[in-house]
Specification:
40% helix, 20% strand, alpha/beta, Rossmann fold, five-stranded mixed β-sheet, 13 helices
Length: 319
């Protein structure tokens, strides 16, 4: 099955969101889209063209957008807010906490251009703290899909979920490799089975982990590869089941090492199954301007870095 994962087709995850919104626009009349001056970047023009009465352009006023969305949710509508991840979280955290999370409003916070792979826009836009910010809010569901297909399916799925959701996706064209129909909110997706090391990845890093797994298998290291698209609620059972088998794990994410998926996995293991673990994540630094692939390599998020982390954690297990 591992060989079926190829990079022959590449589409940005944000396109998956846009196509998911188009589908929702046709299926669910309660879905409303709001945008903070970034319609083209969020790929929702088709939704707008087909449903002009269900779209609100609020301009560069993200805090107001969250307040409007909270108000719409009280009327039974399902508002989807759209802007860059940095502006969807850091800029409006107070409004999300007070107006959406605290009262458990049915608002879907949809955030594009997350992580280092935003690329040339640089550190001011490359938020690497957003997963930590959002997962700490009580009742907030946090989703970070791996490719176009998974993002489209997640977008459609969250309209059925009652409660606030943070949906994170990216800017660059990215390999499309996740099987259709495999997204289930809160359930990890097993991509490969092995016995020597567990690799857990999320978002764009799932593809990096696939590439690393191929090389590890060539070197005689058997990998249990898991795609954690739903960071909260976390599929703890899948993590425990895998690490019980392999005895160690690596967690890879396009986020700060502090506060992200790795920290959540470490908490699970500390409470239920103490095991050697390594993290592949940004090490307490801001990003910079550059091509996505260059930045992933410079900040230690390449397949080679996952490969090395797997070797290291296996050695720790043996010691």
């Amino acid at each position: 099955m591992l060989n079926s994962y190829t990079d022959n087709k590449k589409i940005a995850t944000r396109d998956g969101f846009g196509d998911g919104m188009t589908t929702l626009g046709r299926r669910n009349k309660k879905v409303i889209a709001l945008c903070a001056d970034l319609v083209g970047s969020l790929k929702i023009q088709t939704f707008i063209d087909e449903n002009p009465e269900r779209f609100f352009q609020v301009g560069i006023a993200e805090a107001n957008m969250m307040g409007i969305a909270a108000g719409l949710a009280t009327t039974g509508k399902i508002p989807f807010t759209t802007t860059f991840a940095n502006f969807s979280t850091g800029r409006v955290y107070d409004q999300i906490r007070q107006s959406i999370a605290y009262s458990h409003k049915n608002v879907k916070i949809c955030a594009s251009h997350a992580g280092l792979t935003l690329g040339e826009d640089g550190a001011t836009h490359q938020i690497l703290e957003d997963i930590g910010l959002m997962k700490m809010l009580p009742g907030m569901t946090v989703i970070n899909p791996a490719d176009y297909t998974q993002t489209k399916e997640a977008t459609i799925a969250i309209a059925k979920h009652v409660g606030p959701v943070y949906l994170r996706f990216g800017r660059p064209s990215w390999p499309v490799f996740i099987p259709k129909g495999s997204f289930a909110l809160g359930k990890a997706l097993q991509l490969h089975r092995g016995k020597n090391v567990t690799i857990i990845a999320t978002g764009h890093m799932v593809w990096q982990a696939v590439e690393a797994t191929k090389e590890l298998e060539k070197n005689g290291i058997s990998v249990d590869l898991i795609n954690i698209h739903t960071i909260k609620p976390l599929d703890e059972a899948a993590i425990i089941r895998s690490v019980k088998k392999t005895g160690c794990c690596v967690v890879a994410e396009e986020h700060q090492m502090n506060g992200g998926l790795g920290e959540s996995v470490a908490g699970v293991l500390a409470r239920k199954l103490p095991s050697p673990m390594e993290q592949v994540a940004v090490k307490d630094s801001f990003g910079e301007s550059g091509k996505p692939a260059q930045l992933l390599k410079k900040y230690g998020l390449s397949p080679k870095d996952i490969f090395k982390a797997a070797q290291k954690v296996i050695k720790r297990k043996a010691d």
